[in-house]
Amino acid sequence: MSSIRPILCVVGARPNFMKIAPIMRAFAAAEIPALLLHTGQHYDADMNDAFFRDLGIPHPDINLEVGSGTHAQQTAEIMRRVEPVLDQHQPAAILVVGDVNSTIACALVAAKKGVPVIHVEAGLRSRDRTMPEEINRVLTDQISDLLFTTERSALDNLKQEGIDPERVHFVGNVMIDTLHYNLRQAMPASDTLKAQGLDAGLIDSPAGYALLTLHRPSNVDDRTVLTGITDCINRIARDLPIIFPIHPRTRGRLMEFGLLDTLDPRRVLCTPPLGYLQLLGLMREARLVLTDSGGIQEETTALGIPCITLRHNTERPITVTEGTNTLVGNQPEAIMGAVTQALAQPAKSGRIPEYWDGKAAERIAAVLKGWSPDRT
Ligand code: UD1
Questions:
Q1: Which of 102, 190, 263, 267 maximizes the CB count within 10 A of its CB?
Q2: With contact defined as beta carbons under 8 Å apart, do 101 and 139 qualify?
Q3: Is 126's C-beta closer than 6 angstroms to any atom of ligand 1?
Q4: Could you tell me if 281 and 188 are in contact, meaning their C-beta atoms sit under 8 angstroms apart?
Q5: pTM for this one?
Q6: What's CA 34's distance to the chain center, in Å?
């Protein structure tokens, strides 16, 4: 890119922070001018500030401070507030990552104003349109000028949707760039538990522990489903202690449904959402990870830790075909069956997917150096 106008890089929610950190670093190294815009979708200290600190992300140049709301309210508010920012800064392009509401909201405003859109982590598809993120992915890709993918299957998805393959670049996974960059600083699991005032002795045994994260509406918003999962947590914890950092949405639902107090406090160690270096340390040392997060499916594959995903589908199929991930859905028998199998047999061994090598952001910067944003 020859223009000295900046690229406006967007973050909004927790999984965006891990993706933007290496991009901002690579842009600085390649002398690509960039501004960082935070929509404010996530705002709590433990959902936000801790990540900026742990990941060394520069302080945002602009913060839209939108906060929470329904999908329509949140998306609309971001759109309304980002428009004058584009007018003021006249960026050469806008760069969005992932699939959260901030991603589609900013991309849509930019596309309609003729500002080129760059989408990092394009082409992932769960084919489950009940997931808000799937809607965000499909729409963002349709209006993007330049699309960077994390795995080769993404190009097939994009081609099926009529996207010109010339716009697509397979660069690897920026989230794994962040993992490589920070692995040595990851906090030991026992230190994290002690910092939370919890009994670190519980994870001392050779059996180890399981790490659990949950936040998908399909798992936590339905009383019956969440009751079934909570029951599984207690049953698994009899054999294997569980560390459970609880997302604000999940904590709210557990309290609303009267389930939080049913978790056995001697075997299930609940914490608030944790910082990146803490969670990375807990993942690295875990015997098993149970999750419904997209990012954790990838991070466990990169770390070689067995992952049981409480979803019926994944937009990241390489974590199953090449990595350590197993999809089990959210029914108790299926979850219990998968855990029993994972503990009884040698763990599912995987290999590291192509280009998950810590250099994805550098590849993105290299493409952008030679890119002309002119629309043809
Ligand atoms: C969002 C993303 C999801 C991502 C997840 C990671 C969308 C559609 N979803 O889901 O893809 O995996 O972030 O966390 O963008 N809340 C707080 N403090 C905060 C932020 C949220 O308490 O800092 C509470 C609020 O009650 C809010 C609820 O969490 O209503 C949900 O937040 P929201 O950003 O709407 O969605 P997430 O479930 O976090």
A1: 102
A2: no
A3: no
A4: yes
A5: 0.96
A6: 22
